[in-house]
Amino acid sequence: MGALRNRAAARSGRRRTAVLAALTAVLTLAAGCTGGESPAWHGAKPAPEPSPKASARIVSPAADAHDVPASTTIGFETTKAIKTAIELKDADGAAVKGALTAGGKTWLPAGQLDYGTTYTAAVTVTGDDGKTSTATSTFTVMDRPANQVRISSFLGDGQVVGVGMPLMVRFSRPIPKDYRDDVQARMTVQAKPAQEGVWHWVSGTEVRYRPKAYWRANTSVSYKLQTGGLPMGDGWYGRSDLTVDVKIGPSVVMTVDNRTKSMTVTQNGKVVRRIPVSLGKPTTPSSSGTMLVLEKFRKTMFDTRNDPNPADRYVIPIEYAQRLTWGGEFIHSAPWSVGAQGHTNVSHGCVNMSPANAAWLFGLTRMGDPVTVRGTERRVQLGNGWTDWNMSWADYVKGSAIPYSN
User: Fold this and answer.
1) Which of 188, 199, 300, 376 is the most buried (most CB within 10 A)?
2) Is the pLDDT of residue 1 over 90?
3) Is residue 277 classed exposed, middle or buried when 0-12, 13-18 and 19+ CB atoms within 10 A define those classes?
4) pTM of model > 0.90
């Protein structure tokens, strides 16, 4: 019995030794696979870095700025914002209306700010985590300047004009060339239905707007100049903002052909009458080109007693006169030339027609309706009337102070 117990004990010892040896081998192998480092858990991912929070910064006006122009915008920058809100309040806490400009990085008040008043701008942004951040800037507008430029519109609210009518704005003082882009940036036109158009600087004191093609009949046009308090060079500032709403009437277009001695009148694209006419004789030819009806006189007096040519001096009453050029070309009734109308040119440069046709046409047209004369001995001079339509679109665009893109 003693021998059996000794053999069993020996076998048990050998099994323990074998198990310990196996465990040692496994541990050694594991240590060799990890290069001596602690083992990593399979499938574990590193903790994500926290995403940047939304933030805002007001670029202009700077905090505590003084002598800020009354035309100022609120310039700002944002980071990681999914929503941005801009607010401007005066010292009494009253909110100022306004809107983002086209670039989306500035906010423009709806009207010029009050002189000598303190305002606080706040830009609040919201991030994708729902948290908000606000930047503020308190500034003071300059005192009312002594030098102010008056801004005026040729057209007034509620006027109904022809399809060729340009929008015309004048300044009481020439705007230096390096300030015209700033001024033009504050000039907006809204047409319903929308139509392509551009501003064109005729001179430092006048800028005009025309569409690429004639206005569509019955278009509503609103134009606004946010120029109040705007710097305009040499210590001068815009005196005020300006807003004008006008209406385009039916499309009335007149075409005069010297070859046939006739005028074709279309209304909304349809020919409504062909009228025999007599144009300027060879010594006083009518001008070819596109002109607009500048003004209308039911009755007037033509007085050319100061003409250098004695043969062209006369004083005569005229009916149904419609001015085409500042130089004195009109459409008008000419009962004395009815026999020549449709056959021979006998006028001093005007478009003569019978009293009946002149009365009918006078009742149809509006200021700004286009008249195109073709085939005469001379061209209309730019500036001799509203001659905007005698420039190609490419040339008209060149008169913009801001690079044009439709």
Assistant:
1) 199
2) no
3) buried
4) no
Strands across the sheet with 252-257, in order?
A: 270-276, 262-267, 252-257, 370-374, 287-292, 378-379
Whether 33 is a known active-site residue: answer no
3-state class (DSSP) for residue 242: strand
**The token pair that represents 21 in the structure block:** 């040896």
Is 343 known to be catalytic? no
Say which residues have a Cβ less than 8 Å from residue 108's Cβ, sequence separation at least 6. Answer: 73, 74, 98, 99, 100, 101, 226
Phi, psi of 27 (to 5 degrees): -65, -40
37 pLDDT above the threshold of 70? no
Q: What CA–CA distance (Å, rounded) separates 341 from 363?
A: 21
- CA dihedral (91, 94, 99, 105) positive or negative: positive
Which of 33, 66, 200, 350 is labelled catalytic? 350
136: tokens are 């503020």
Among 323, 324, 259, which residue's Cα sits nearest to residue 289? 324
Identify the helix (H) or strand (E) that includes residue 204: none
How far is 137 from 118, CA to CA, in rounded Å? 11
Flag whether pLDDT at 30 surpasses 60: no
Q: How far apart are CA 115 and CA 173, in angstroms?
A: 22
Q: Which of 33, 66, 332, 343 is catalytic?
A: 332
List the helix and strand counts (H, then E) for the chain. 4, 27
